[in-house]
Specification:
With 245 residues, the protein is α+β, with helices and mostly antiparallel strands. Helix content is 35%, strand content 33%.
């Protein structure tokens, strides 16, 4: 290899070695954990109604419509959904139909619903309110979770301002936010209260279908607290060391 070629190869290799020693440094990171809470309240109760009917063969075609109409009359302004249906035939040839219907009813429409169910019952068909549950819907939970996330992001922005005020020459930015822990917080005394109410309702129930009723006497709207946390990471480019002279 000639001297000129050797010098050319050396000149090409020098920048590569220099660049290899100047790999970018990882960002400087600051992590904080933030917490916020919100309250979710059900706008309507989930009401479950059971219908037990004895069906003779020739009446089977009309019994289903009769059951649906009887349940619909308990609260005509809402949509009742058939959630379960079972049929069995005894040795006498009579079929026993057991159906459950569900609907969401505001508290204002719960008054007297037990009496309506009892009045709608007749020989061969018994109607009973199985449960009245004020647990919020999934959509209601998600709406509150979205509000909490907004609150946490606002907190994160304020924390970023504090970090940049402490290190004005670093220009930190939000690198990552991860949310977690968005679960309803149910107090133990509330759980015990629900248990006592279930026992009370079972004692006053007059029909077999009413056993284990929860809050059947016409519950009231209650709120559930949701707590959510966010882990926030702030990042800034690492300072470049001054070149040695």
């Amino acid at each position: 290899m000639t001297l000129r070629a050797l010098l050319l190869v050396s000149a090409l290799l020098i920048p590569s070695f220099a660049m290899a020693g100047e790999n970018p440094k990882p960002d400087d990171l600051i992590s904080v954990n933030l917490t916020s809470e919100g309250w979710v309240q059900a706008k309507a109760a989930r009401v479950t109604v059971s219908v037990n009917a004895a069906v003779v063969g020739e009446k089977a075609s009309s019994t289903r419509d009769t059951m649906i109409k009887a349940v619909g009359d308990l609260a005509s302004k809402t949509e009742w959904r058939l959630t379960s249906f079972n049929r069995n035939q005894d040795q006498t040839g009579i079929e026993q139909w057991v159906a459950q219907f569900e609907a969401r009813l505001p508290e204002s429409e719960l008054g007297g619903i037990q009496a309506k169910a009892k009045a709608a019952s007749k020989t061969g068909m018994q109607i009973a309110v199985v449960s009245v549950d004020f647990s919020p819907t999934l959509a209601e939970f998600e709406a509150v979770r979205a509000d909490i996330r907004k609150a946490l992001m606002t907190q994160a922005s304020k924390e970023l301002e504090n970090v940049n005020a402490a290190y004005p020459d670093r220009k930190f930015r939000i690198s990552e936010i991860s949310f977690g822990g968005a679960q309803p917080m149910i107090a133990p005394q509330m759980m015990r209260m629900k248990g006592r109410m279930a026992m009370m309702d079972a004692q006053v129930a007059s029909a077999p279908a009413m056993e284990g009723v929860t809050n059947s006497m016409g519950g009231v709207e209650t709120s559930q607290k949701i707590e959510m946390n966010a882990n926030v990471t702030f990042a800034a480019l690492a300072p470049i060391a001054a070149a040695a002279k």
